[in-house]
Amino acid sequence: MSRVAELQARIKEAQAELDDAKLSERADALKRIKEEIKFYEFKATDFKGLLKSRVTQKQVDEFLAKKATDAKKAAAPKKPVK
To answer: Would you state the torsion angle of the CA atoms of residues 27, 45, 42, 54, taken in this order, to the nearest 10 degrees?
Structure first.
């Protein structure tokens, strides 16, 4: 096995280990956050705008697709009405 192939195999193994650790810690983090929200008596309105303030890549893609479609409609020659 070449050095490069060996390193790639180690990277793949380390990535799998990282993914497992993130899943494990994610559950603990969510539990801790829920407990603190309950303890400090936060309401949904306390987070209004905070959680939806980030735009996802899917939202960007949908916006650009709609914009392209609208531009095509506007650029299309209009047939005269008789």
So the answer is: 40
The tens digit of pLDDT for each residue in 38-82 reads 999 998 888 777 766 667 888 888 989 998 888 887 777 667 666
| C-alpha–C-alpha distance, residues 14 and 28, integer Å | 21
**Residue 71 domain flag:** yes
Using CA atoms, how far residue 36 sits from 11, 31, 43, 46, 79, in Å, is: 36, 9, 12, 13, 63
The b-or-e profile of 4-27 (16+ CB within 10 A means b, else e) is eeeeeeeeeeeeeeeeeeeeeeee
Note down the domain range covering 9.
Answer: 3-75
* Number of domain units in the chain: 1
* Residue 80 located in a structural domain: no
Residue 82 within any structural domain of the chain: no
